[in-house]
Amino acid sequence: MRINRSSSGVQTALLVLLASCQCISANSDTLLPPEVSQYNGTLYAVCKVRPSTSLPEGLPKVYGQVLFKQDQSEGKLQVLLRLNGFSTEDAPEPRAVHIHQYGDLSQGCDSTGGHYNPFGVNHPKHPGDFGNFISREGRINELIESKATLFGGLSALGRAVVIHEKRDDLGLGGDIGSLLNGNAGRRLACCVIGMSSSSPWNMQNERFARQLRRN
Questions:
Q1: Which helix (H) or strand (E) holds 179?
Q2: 150 and 179 in one domain?
Q3: Is 168 a known active-site residue?
Q4: Quick count: other Cβ atoms within 10 Å of Cβ 60?
Q5: Closest by Cα among 53, 78, 56, 44 to 190
Q6: Are residues 92 and 116 both part of a single domain?
């Protein structure tokens, strides 16, 4: 039997190419962005908060930053909230903060979808359910740990952070809204989570630490 060497070579090349594609596909969850190497295994992200474009009069115009830092894919995600524009009243209402599904601000905060809920569970078990925060002198300055991640297929990168009008009832409200979003009310402000250098985190974390020392 006579073998066509040209055809055989093409077939071999195709088999190698298919094998390499399958390898890449099978291991796609382990592929890491180059910033991981740049910052010794750590990823940083920042979210520039702006007021919702559909706010009625009388509600606070909230602005500021939400910053993220995660050491390795197994590490806890640290979230630093640096928010301004709340009422300076003596007994401010707690405000809920959550990660929402879409980084879509085409209709302001209303187009960010519902809570980011990759596991299909009830609120407040979504990875981006940050909880309630009380402003002091019109500001929220808090450092928390979150079950969300910046790594892999479940990364929060490209999604949105939303600051709400009301307190999160933590799923105890006894209705469907409570299990979806904690009945946290209208969306005061929002932003899209984007990968960043270490500089924003380092600068704001240093300022946060100085404020803690003063207080």
A1: helix 176-181
A2: yes
A3: no
A4: 21
A5: 53
A6: yes
Confidence (pTM): 0.84
Is 110 catalytic? The answer is no
**CB-based contact 101:159 (threshold 8 Å):** yes
71 is catalytic: no
Per-residue model confidence as pLDDT tens digits over 89-134: 777 889 999 999 999 999 999 999 999 999 999 999 999 999 999 9
The residue that leads in pLDDT, 82 or 17, is 82
50 has catalytic annotation:
no
**169 part of the active site:** no
Helices (H), 71-150: none
Domain, as residue range, for 190: 33-214
Number of domains, the chain:
2
63 in Cβ contact with 91 (< 8 Å): no
Considering the candidates 159, 164, 167, 168, report the single residue annotated as catalytic.
164
199-211 burial by CB neighbour count: b if 16+ within 10 A, else e?
Answer: ebbeebbeebeee
